Amino acid sequence: MPLITLLFLACGPSPEEPPAQATTPQLLDWAAGRAAAGELDKAIIGYRRALQRDSLSVASLLGLAEIYRLQERTGPADRYRRRAFHVHYGAGLDWIVAGRPDSARTSLEAAVSIMPRHPLAHLRLGELKRDAGQVDSAIVHFEHAVEANPRFAESLIILGGAYVAADRLDDARDTFERAIAANINAIDAYLELGRLLGEQREWAAAVSHFEKALLIDPGSELALQGLDHAFSRLSGKR
């Protein structure tokens, strides 16, 4: 028997493309099988057909992202990975609005697994864990958010607040100062730092930060109350 015939019989023909009535799971299984066999172009066909059935199919989106990565087609790979991320991230935000924190957490954890350095996903996930009393776990996510975008004052302020809750006051102070360095008009950073300095009985420094908060928002009740309290304590020391 000729060698070519032997090779053909050994390898066998690749499975035919699934019929038009194939279900989404069948298409996904076929595409995954073609990808495992190294038939990437056929796998793309399968994943695209599955995506036509369900435009939010994360398995299809990630399958295409992986194939394009293997083909060193960075643009399409990143595009499909981002689409998969946003399916879970958008669902997580919707669950938050609906008051379903457990479902939101599941969706956001799935989103983070796809894009581990996305700052907003870590921020929202950290907030859910903080609200559930899991402060240490929340801090990990807030730190990831800051690492991914160190100039975003909101992340720094939220992280500083979590440090306060964990009684890591030196870390909190440094973080609030970083928030001010990132955005000189970040009023919440001045307010939080003023409160923290007051608790540490550094009344003059607290007065200074509440005054700076009032320069940003002269009508801030929190700044006015904090300033009055710090002034009264400072006057009592004299």
Put simply, the count of helices is 13
* Amount of beta strand: under 5%
Strand and helix order: HHHHHHHHHHHHH
Q: CATH homologous superfamily name of the domain at 15-85?
A: Tetratricopeptide repeat domain
- Described by the principal axes of the CA atoms, the overall outline is elongated
Which sheet architecture does the biggest sheet show? none
CATH class descriptor of the domain at 15-85: Mainly Alpha
Output the CATH topology of the domain at 15-85. Serine Threonine Protein Phosphatase 5, Tetratricopeptide repeat
Helix content percent band? over 70%
In whole angstroms, the N-to-C terminal distance is 106 Å
Number of strands: 0
CATH architecture of the domain at 15-85: Alpha Horseshoe
- Tell me the radius of gyration: 27 Å
Mean of the pLDDT scores? 91
Please provide a written account of the structure.
This protein has a domain of 71 residues: Alpha Horseshoe (Serine Threonine Protein Phosphatase 5, Tetratricopeptide repeat). It is built from 13 helices and no strands. By secondary structure, it is mostly helical.
Report a brief summary of the structure.
Helices cover 78% and strands 0% of the residues. It has 238 residues and is an all-alpha fold.
Can you give keywords for this protein?
238 residues; mainly alpha; 13 helices
How are the elements arranged and paired?
Layout: H1 3-11, H2 24-36, H3 40-53, H4 58-70, H5 74-97, H6 101-114, H7 119-131, H8 135-148, H9 153-165, H10 169-182, H11 187-199, H12 203-216, H13 221-237
Helix pairs in contact: 2-3, 2-4, 3-4, 4-5, 5-6, 6-7, 7-8, 8-9, 9-10, 9-11, 10-11, 11-12, 11-13, 12-13
